[in-house]
Write a structure and sequence with these properties.
It comes from Alicyclobacillus mali (ex Roth et al. 2021). By secondary structure, this protein is mostly helical. The chain has 21 helices and two strands.
C-alpha cells in the first residue's frame, strides 16, 4: 500500500521534483482550506451558489471573469519572476532546464489565453449591454456556459503544475517538439485540451456579443451613435470568429497525433509540421488584435471622459478599428520570415505588417487631438491611458523593425523580440485593461478604488516596466536568444539581466499594491451615490451603481452619439430617465446550475483525455449530453420582475 502510494505520488503528484512543487502543494491546500473555512464560518455557501455559480446575469459573469483574470495575472507574474530570478546572474541553477521550459511555456499561455482573454471578456460583459441600452446579452444561458468553459479550461491547465507535469514546448507548441516521441507524458495534453476547452467558450462569446451588438441596440442607436468601446468589441468579435476555429482545428489535430496515432504533423509518415505553424499563426497574430482592440476602445472612452470632449475623428476611429480587424489576417507569416518561404512571400507579409501601423497611428493622433485644449483630469484611468501612448509608440516602432524581413533575420528569436511584444502586450493590453478596470469599477461595485495607493502602484509598475524591458532590447542586439535558461559570465549580459530582473520585481510589487488597494477600498473607498462619478458620456453612467439586475427600467431612446452627455447638458433627460407609468414587468433568465455542470462535465472529459483514461472521458461527455438534453426539454426558463417592484426600487434610488 505504501509502495503504491509513493509510486502514485512520485508519478502524478511529482513529490520528487523539489521544493517548488512542495511549496505549491502546501499553498494550494492552505488556500482551499482557508476558502472553505471562510465560507463555512460566514455561512456563505448558499449565497455563493445562488448569486454567483448559478447566475446568468451578464454583470456578475463579467465580475467573475475579472476575478479570474487578476488571479491569472498573479500566476503568470509569478512564472515571470521565477524566470527573471533564474536569469539574474550567469550560470544560475535556481531552476533546471526542464523546469525553466515548463515555466516559460505556462507563463506565455496563461498571460495570453487565461489572463488577457478573460480580462477583455470581463469588460465585454460589464459594459457592452449597458452602453447599447440592452437588458442583457443576446444569449444569457450561452454566456454562462462560455464562462464556465473558460474557468474549467483554466483550472485544468493550472493543475498541471502539481499533478502530472506542465507542458514544456513553448506557448506556440510547435511539432515535432510536441509529438509523442519527443514529448511524452501528460503535460502537452494538458495544453491541448485546456486551450481547446476554453477556446470553445471564446467562440461562443464572440457569437454572443456580435449578435448582441447587431440586434439589441436601443431605439435610435444607429451605427453612427454606437460608443467606441462597443465598436472595438464588435471588431474584436469579428476577429474571434475567423481566427479561433483555426486554433481549435490545429490543437485537435495535434491531440489526435498524440493519443490516436495519426500523423498530421509527422514528416516521416507524410505529415507536415509547417501546416500546424501556419494554422497556429493564422490564429496567433489576429489574437494580438483580439486583445488590443478592446483596449483601444477603453482608451477612447477614458480620453473623451477625462478631457471633457467628444472624441476627435469618430468616423476615422471606427474605420481604423475595422481596418485593423481585416489587416490582422494578412500578417501571420511574419512570425516565420526565417523559415524559407521565399522573397515574394516575405515581401508581401512585410508590407502588410507595416501597413497595420497606419490605422493604429490614426488612433494615437485622434486621442492626442481629443486631449488638446481639453480639461484633462489625471485620474487613475487617465494616468494608465497616458502611460500607454509612449509605450505603444515604442512598441510599434520596434514592430516596424521586426516587420522588415532582412532585419528580422537578425532580431528573430532574440530578446529584442521579447522586449517588443511585452511592450505592446503589456503596454497596450494590460494598461488598457487596468484603465478599464479603474474606470468601470464604480459601476460594478458602487465605490471607487483608492487613488493614493493606485498612484503608488501606477508609478511602481511604470518604472518597473521600463527597467525590466528596455535592457532586453540591448540584450537582443547583443545576441542573447530567447528561451535560454542560463548563460556564461563572459558574454557581457550580466548587468543588463540583473537590471531587468529588478524591474520585474518592481512590477510584482506594484501588483501587490493593487491587491492592497482593492482590499482597502472595499471598506474605505469613496462610495458612488450618483451612478456617474466621472461625469461620463455614455449610457452606462445613466444607471445606478451597482446596476440592478434588469439594467434599464425602461429602454432609453438614443438621440445623440454621447447620449448621457446630451441628456445632462442638452436637455434630453426625458429620453433616458424612466417614467413610472412606462415601467412594465421585465422578463429575465432564471438562474440555473446547468452551465456550471456543463463546464464541470467538460473538465472531467478533458481530464480523462489528458491521461487517456477514456472511461472518465466517456462519463464526462455523457454528462454534457444529459445537460444539453435537459436544456432542450426545458420550457420555463424565465422569471418575472414585477413592475411594482421595479418602481419601488427606482423610487428608492430617486429615479422616478
Amino acid at each position: 500500500m505504501t509502495s503504491g502510494f509513493l509510486q502514485f505520488a512520485n508519478h502524478y503528484l511529482m513529490w520528487n521534483e523539489g521544493p517548488l512543487i512542495w511549496i505549491s502543494d502546501a499553498l494550494i491546500v492552505l488556500t482551499v482550506v482557508a476558502i472553505v473555512a471562510t465560507l463555512t464560518y460566514t455561512k456563505r455557501w448558499g449565497w455563493l451558489w445562488r448569486e454567483w455559480i448559478t447566475t446568468t446575469d451578464h454583470k456578475r459573469i463579467g465580475i467573475m471573469y475579472l476575478v479570474c483574470a487578476l488571479l491569472m495575472l498573479f500566476r503568470g507574474g509569478v512564472d515571470a519572476l521565477l524566470m527573471r530570478t533564474q536569469l539574474a546572474f550567469p550560470g544560475e541553477h535556481f531552476l533546471n532546464a526542464e523546469h525553466y521550459d515548463q515555466i516559460f511555456t505556462t507563463h506565455g499561455t496563461i498571460m495570453i489565453l487565461f489572463m488577457a482573454m478573460p480580462f477583455i471578456f470581463a469588460l465585454f460583459n460589464i459594459v457592452v449591454p449597458l452602453q447599447i441600452g440592452a437588458r442583457d446579452v443576446a444569449f444569457p444561458y450561452l454566456n454562462a456556459i462560455s464562462f464556465w468553459l473558460f474557468f474549467f479550461g483554466a483550472l485544468l491547465f493550472n493543475i498541471s503544475f502539481v499533478f502530472g507535469g506542465s507542458p514544456d514546448a513553448g506557448w506556440v507548441s510547435y511539432p515535432p517538439l510536441t509529438e509523442l516521441g519527443y514529448d511524452p507524458g501528460p503535460g502537452e495534453n494538458y495544453y491541448l485540451v485546456a486551450i481547446n476547452l476554453s477556446g470553445i467558450g471564446t467562440i461562443a462569446t464572440g457569437i454572443n456579443f456580435l449578435v448582441t451588438i447587431l440586434r439589441m441596440r436601443a431605439p435610435g442607436m444607429t451605427w453612427n451613435r454606437v460608443p467606441l468601446f462597443t465598436w472595438s468589441v464588435l471588431a474584436s468579435c469579428i476577429v474571434i470568429l475567423a481566427a479561433f476555429p483555426a486554433l481549435t482545428v490545429a490543437l485537435a489535430l495535434l491531440l489526435l497525433d498524440r493519443i490516436a496515432g495519426t500523423h498530421f504533423f509527422t514528416i516521416l509518415h507524410g505529415g507536415n509540421p509547417m501546416m500546424f505553424i501556419n494554422l497556429f499563426w493564422v490564429w496567433g497574430h489576429p489574437e494580438v488584435y483580439i486583445v488590443i482592440l478592446p483596449a483601444f476602445g477603453v482608451y477612447s472612452e477614458v480620453v473623451a471622459t477625462f478631457s471633457r470632449k467628444a472624441i476627435f475623428g469618430y468616423k476615422s476611429m471606427v474605420a481604423s478599428l475595422l481596418l485593423i480587424s481585416v489587416i490582422s489576417y494578412l500578417v501571420w507569416a511574419h512570425h516565420f520570415f526565417t523559415m524559407g518561404a521565399g522573397a515574394d512571400v516575405n515581401t508581401f507579409f512585410a508590407i502588410a505588417s507595416m501597413c497595420v501601423g497606419i490605422p493604429t497611428g490614426v488612433k494615437i493622433f485622434n486621442w492626442l487631438f481629443t486631449m488638446y485644449r481639453g480639461r484633462i483630469r489625471l485620474t487613475l484611468p487617465m494616468l494608465w491611458t497616458l502611460a500607454f501612448i509612449p509605450n505603444f509608440v515604442t512598441g510599434g516602432a520596434t514592430g516596424i523593425l521586426l516587420a522588415a524581413a532582412p532585419e528580422d533575420y537578425q532580431y528573430h528569436n532574440s530578446y529584442f523580440l521579447i522586449a517588443h511584444f511585452h511592450q505592446t502586450l503589456i503596454g497596450g493590453v494590460v494598461y488598457g485593461m487596468l484603465a478599464g478596470m479603474y474606470y468601470w469599477w464604480p459601476k460594478m461595485f458602487g465605490f471607487k478604488l483608492d487613488e493614493k495607493s493606485g498612484k503608488i502602484a501606477f508609478w511602481l509598475w511604470n518604472i518597473g516596466f521600463y527597467v525590466c524591458f528596455m535592457p532586453q532590447y540591448a540584450l537582443g542586439l547583443m545576441g542573447m536568444q530567447r528561451r535560454m535558461y542560463t548563460y556564461p559570465a563572459n558574454m557581457g549580459w550580466n548587468t543588463l539581466n540583473l537590471v531587468s530582473t529588478i524591474g520585474a520585481y518592481l512590477m510584482g510589487l506594484a501588483f501587490l499594491v493593487i491587491v492592497w488597494q482593492i482590499l482597502y477600498s472595499i471598506r474605505h473607498g469613496e462610495r458612488d451615490v450618483t451612478g456617474d462619478p466621472w461625469d461620463g458620456r455614455t449610457l452606462e453612467w445613466s444607471l445606478p451603481s451597482p446596476v440592478p439586475e434588469y439594467n434599464f427600467a425602461v429602454i432609453p431612446t438614443v438621440t445623440a452619439r454621447d447620449m448621457w452627455w446630451a441628456a445632462k447638458y442638452e436637455g434630453q433627460m426625458e429620453h433616458v430617465r424612466p417614467r413610472a407609468e412606462d415601467i412594465r414587468d421585465i422578463h429575465v433568465p432564471k438562474h440555473t446550475a446547468r452551465p456550471f455542470l456543463i463546464g464541470l462535465s467538460f473538465f472531467i472529459a478533458g481530464f480523462g483525455l489528458v491521461f487517456e483514461w477514456y472511461v472518465l472521458t466517456a462519463v464526462g461527455f455523457a454528462s454534457v449530453l444529459c445537460c444539453l438534453l435537459l436544456r432542450a426539454l426545458e420550457e420555463d426558463d424565465e422569471m418575472v420582475i414585477a413592475a411594482d417592484t421595479i418602481r419601488q426600487h427606482e423610487a428608492t434610488l430617486g429615479r422616478v
